[in-house]
Amino acid sequence: IQRALTDTGPPSLPSFPIIGSILSLRSEHPPHILFHKLQKKYGDIYSLMMGAHNVIIINSHQHAKEVLLKRGKTFAGRPRTVTTDILTRDGKDIAFADYSDTWRFHRKMVHGALCMFGEGSTSIEQIICREASTMCQVLGEMQSVAIDLAPEMTRAVTNVVCSLCFNSSYKRGDPEFEAMLQYSQGIVDTVAKDSLVDIFPWLQIFPNEDLRILKQCVTVRDSLLQKKYDEHKAQYSDDTQRDLLDALLRAKRSAENNNTVTQNLGLTDDHLLMTVGDIFGAGVETTTTVLKWSIAFLIHHPQVQKKIQEELDCKIGMDRHPKLSDRGNLPYLEATIREVLRIRPVSPLLIPHVALADSSIGEYTIEKGARVIINLWSLHHDEKEWKNPEIFDPGRFLDEEGSSLGAPSASYLPFGAGVRVCLGESLAKMELFLFLSWILQRFTLEVPSGHPLPDLQGKFGVVLQPQKYKVCAKLRACWAETQPHS
Ligand code: HEM
Ligand code: PLO
Q: Could you report the predicted ipTM of this complex, rounded to two decimals?
C-alpha cells in the first residue's frame, strides 16, 4: 500500500512549555549516543523541543541524504546560537553562517584558494612532507619514553594550515603557538554544545562560566587573527599571492574597485577575519583529532599497525619517503583511515541544519525554521548496515583479497554531503595519509609499560576528541639499519 504524504510531523518526544523536551534529554550519555538510543523508542526520525526550537533528529542514511542532497538547498540554513554568534561575530564566517549570498561567495572563494594549493599542485604535498619530517625527527629524539604525541602532531598540522592561511609556521615552544593551543581548546570545550545558554538565550544575563571562558578565548584568538591581517595588509601586493589571506584581500580589493555586483556581498573586514578563522580552526582541530584517534586505535590493535607496516615495507620500502602518489598503492592504510572516520566521526552530529522553507523528510512534513540534526553516529553504527559496528575493522572497507577499496555501505558520510559538505575534505585526506605513513614507516607505537590503554570513549563537543594518553614510539629495527645517520 502506498502511503500518502501526511501533514503530520515526525513522532515527538514529550515536551512542555518553556522547558521543551529537556526532561527526556537528561542523561549520563553524550547527545549523539542518547539520540541513537532514543531511535529504538521513537524511530529513525523524531522531533523534540529545545526550549522554543523545534528540532528534528535524523538517524538513517536515507533520510540524511534526503536532507543533504535531494533537498540540500532547502535545508542549507544554520541556526543562530549564543555561542556561535560570539565565535563568529554573528555568523560572519562559513560554517556557522546562515544560507546567503555572502556565505556562498566566501565558500566559493575559499574553495578556489584551496584548490589552487590542492591536489594538482605539488606545493601542499611539500608542505605536509616538510612537517612530517620534522615531526618524525622530534619523535626520534624522544624514543622509547612515554610521551603525549598530541603537542607535536598538533604543531605539524597547525603548520600546514598556517602555511596555507598565513604563509607562516611555528617552531617548538613558540609562545604564540602555546597561546593558540590554549584558546582553541577553550573554544572547543565551550562552543555549540547546546549548553543551556543556547537553549535558553535569556540565561545569558546570569553569570555563566562557559560563556566567560568562551569570550576570553575568542578575544585571544581575535587578536592573533587581527595581527596576521594587519601584517598582510601592510605587505599586500597585487602581483604576489602567498596564501589564503592574500587571496581574500585581493577579492575584497577587486570588489571595492568595481563596486556594482559585489557591493551587497558584505566583504567586510569582519567577514574576512572570521572566514580565515574558520579555516584555521577547522584545519587544526579536525585533522589533529583524527590523528589522535588513529594512534589510539592502532595501539589497541597492534595487528592492524603491523599490517600497515608490512604494506609500507612492500610498496615503499626504506629507501624513500611516502608520497601522495603512493595513496592508490596502500589500500590497507586507506581502509584504516576510513574505519577511524567511521567509528569515531569528528563531527558526530554535523553542524545543525535549518529548513529555509516548509518541506518534508520521508513521509513527514517539516516546517520552515525547524532545526535538523543529522546523527552521523547512528549512520556509522547502524546494525542493518555494518556488521558489528562497535568493532574496529579496516577489513570491512576492502574486498575479499584485501587488495581494493570498496564502499561497504551507503550509511557513511564522515564529511557530510551536498551544499554544506566539508570544504577541507581533500586537504584532510592528504594530511592523514602522509602523516600516518611517515610515522608508521619509521616507528612502532606501543602503550608504555605501566600505562593504561587509551580510552576510546571520547569527549563530546563541537568535535569528538579522545582523552589524553601516552605512547611509546620505538624506531623500527629495519629503519635503523638502513638509515646510518638517523
Ligand atoms: C564542515 C567533517 C576537516 C573546513 C564540515 C562538516 C563535517 C566536516 C561533518 C559539516 C557538514 C554539515 O554541516 O552538513 C570534517 C572531517 C575532517 C574535516 C571529518 C577531517 C578529517 C576540515 C578541514 C577544513 C574543514 C581540514 C579546512 C581546511 C570545513 C568548513 C566547513 C566544514 C569550512 C563548513 C562548511 C559549510 O558550512 O558551508 N566538516 N572536516 N574541514 N568543514 Fe570539515
Ligand atoms: C575549533 C576551535 C577553533 O578555535 C575555532 C573553530 C573554528 C571552526 C570550527 C572548529 C573550531 C571546530 C570544527 C568545525 C569548524 C568548522 C567546521 C568544523 C566545527 C570551533 C566541523 C568539523 O564541522
A: 0.99
